[in-house]
Q: What sequence folds into this?
């Protein structure tokens, strides 16, 4: 039997390697040891096509350090293609990424997993990051839109990750809810069933970072829209 003390210290090198791998970047380390498969021939939809908003948060990007290594779906990472890493969306999902700081947009194909750094919702290729003007800053506040209608195969939220929104109003009258939402770009109306009645709530954004939600609440308050940050069911 291996002594308890010897076993305890024998795991330290492995733990150290794991910590270095995860902390080196927002995504897991890619490896070129396996033979890469070719990327699929997928056309991006029209940028004005209907999509489904799936979140607001902080984007990062990864480039030369991982160029040529394997992505999580077995392709060779090419920083000069419009691709990205997401924690849960199915591979080959097409996502429109809108930089909320400058209004620039880009569409990317999901072919990797990540980012695993705290407070990141997507990890873009270098080309995609350049397209929305975030190379210099390294990160940007973005809104994600899934550019497909059927979300049945998409796992957008992870139960272990808290999700937040900004609630701006709650109304008995559906018309009043939509009237408020009309004046707040990016807001939505959600019907909720209470024990004794239906109400119509006005929400803004979906966030995995509570600080981002609070930041948006402050911005909205300066524009005259009062509200509060609320955790929503995943």
A:
């Amino acid at each position: 039997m291996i002594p308890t003390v010897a076993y305890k210290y024998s795991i330290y090198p492995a733990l150290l390697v794991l910590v270095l791998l995860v902390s080196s970047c927002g995504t897991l380390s890619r490896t070129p040891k396996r033979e890469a498969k070719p990327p699929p021939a997928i056309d991006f939809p029209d940028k004005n096509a209907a999509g489904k908003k799936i979140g607001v948060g902080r984007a990062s990007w990864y480039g030369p350090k991982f160029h040529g290594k394997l992505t999580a779906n077995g392709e060779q990472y090419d920083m000069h293609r419009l691709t990205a890493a997401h924690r849960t969306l199915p591979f080959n999902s097409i996502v429109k990424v809108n930089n909320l700081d400058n209004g620039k947009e880009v569409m990317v194909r999901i072919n990797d997993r990540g980012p695993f750094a705290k407070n990141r919702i997507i990890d873009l290729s270098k080309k995609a990051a350049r397209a929305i003007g975030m190379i210099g800053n390294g990160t940007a506040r973005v809104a994600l839109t899934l550019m497909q209608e059927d979300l049945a195969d998409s796992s957008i939220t992870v139960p272990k990750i808290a999700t937040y929104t900004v609630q701006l109003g709650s109304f008995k009258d559906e018309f009043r809810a939509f009237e408020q939402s009309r004046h707040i770009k990016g807001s939505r109306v959600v019907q909720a069933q209470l024990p004794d009645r239906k109400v119509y709530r006005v929400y803004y954004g979906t966030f995995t970072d509570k600080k981002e939600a609070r930041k948006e609440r402050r911005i909205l308050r300066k524009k005259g829209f009062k509200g509060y940050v609320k955790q929503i069911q995943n």
